[in-house]
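Raw record, unedited: Pyrimidine dimer DNA glycosylase /DNA-(Apurinic or apyrimidinic site) lyase
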Amino acid sequence: MRVWSLHPRYLDRQGLTACWRETLLAQAVLAGRTKGYTNHPQLRRWRATGDPQGAVAAYLHGVADEADRRGYRYDRQRISAAPAEIVVPVTDGQLAYEWRHLVAKLTQRSPAWLTGLGEVDAPDPHPVLRVVPGDVEEWEVR
């Protein structure tokens, strides 16, 4: 499961679709609708909020907004909770780690997409996330 901290605009078509699907899985896990992935480390970020399901719903809306911008059709009816008015922290170290991870993926899978992104000194976070100083998140599996 990879729920990216990066803004969805950086994800290629495959990455955006995978992020949508994997975040829908995270939503199901947090709602208790599945037995798998219940201890997945990336779920710690959402559980640490006051409203895990609402936070994930807000995240999903951000991914769907990017899909809309590109002319894709993601079914927002699959979002099972009302989006929370919430800001979730993410460390600058985590963003840098994920950026390197994404660049490595795009170099192999979608080099033209990577080139189209241009120079990115400090990638933006997903709109639900706010950057705070710090190292790679403790829940990240390296």
